[in-house]
Amino acid sequence: MNKIISISREFGSGGRELGKRLADKLGFAYYDKEIVQEIANRSELSLHYVNDIIEHRPSFSFPIHTGVSFMMTDSIWNPTQTIYSAQCEILREMAEKSDCVVVGRCSDYILREFKPLKLFVYAEMEHKIARCREKKPDETRTDRQLARMIKNIDKHRAKYYEFFTARRWGNKRLYDICINTSEISVKDVASVLADYVHLWNPS
Fold first, then answer.
1. Rounded to whole angstroms, how far apart are CA atoms 57 and 76?
2. 51 CB neighbour count, 10 Å cutoff
3. Does 121 map to a domain?
4. Fewer CB in a 10 Å sphere around the end CB: N or C, the chain?
5. Which of 32-36, 126-130, 158-162 is modeled with the greatest confidence?
6. φ and ψ at 176, to 5 degrees?
7. Per-residue pLDDT for 46 more than 90?
8. What's the pLDDT tens digit per position in 162-201?
9. Does residue 56 belong to any structural domain of this protein?
10. Can you give the CATH number for the domain in which 24 is found?
């Protein structure tokens, strides 16, 4: 069985950077934005729209894992379900192909039969704001505005995740390792995790 590492992350915590560094250290394939591009290709929806649904504005207000039959309008259900179905198909193909690191996209849930190593990366708000400014030096928003943006992005990520999985995003019991990057560099975290993965045998 291939080794699969799933990284869920708060916005600004460095989860994406961690995933890339870890994949490079291990020689694993790395999947992040490539997933969104492939979903757009297969669903014939625009890249912007797909990303908007997954990351920012999921178009629903109740979960599908309720065991209750209901009707949903085509305008809401069809694009959202099309995107998720393509996401499931693509992630499974990637997991079957080789060892890989997957960032976000409900990968911990969708790939659960592959027994991935499930990571959740988080940080204190002040550190997330600092990381945002580091990544975008010309950022003009105030700290309060950035904090609001970060909270909104995480809120929408949680909504999308919880809609399709009936699980609470960020619940520590769902993950094998939870990492606070506030007081340690992502580079150092990647080194420690690489050593862990060498010893880890999914079964």
1. 12
2. 16
3. yes
4. C
5. 126-130
6. -80, -35
7. no
8. 988 999 999 999 999 999 999 999 999 999 999 999 999 7
9. yes
10. 3.40.50.300
Q: What is the extent of the structural domain holding 142? A: 4-198
Give the residue with greater pLDDT, 168 vs 63. Answer: 168
Indicate the pLDDT class of residue 24, thresholds 50, 70 and 90.
Answer: very high
58: which 2 tokens? 């999921």
Q: Which residues in 19-34 are b (16+ Cβ under 10 Å) and which e?
A: bbbbbebbebbbbbee
Comparing C-alpha atoms, which of 123, 161, 148 is closest to residue 18?
A: 123
Instruction: Give CA–CA dist 67/77, Å, rounded.
Output: 17
Look up residue 172 and give its DSSP letter.
G
Token pair, residue 79, equals: 């694009």
Would you say 16 and 60 are in contact if contact means Cβ atoms under 8 Å apart?
A: no
Q: Which amino acid would we find at residue 71? A: M
DSSP string, 36-63: HHHHHHHHT--HHHHHIIIII--S-SS-
Q: According to DSSP H, which parts of 1-113 are helical?
A: 15-26, 33-43, 47-51, 74-97, 107-110
Three-state DSSP at 186 gives helix
**Average pLDDT for 36-55:** 82
Residue 116 covered by a domain: yes
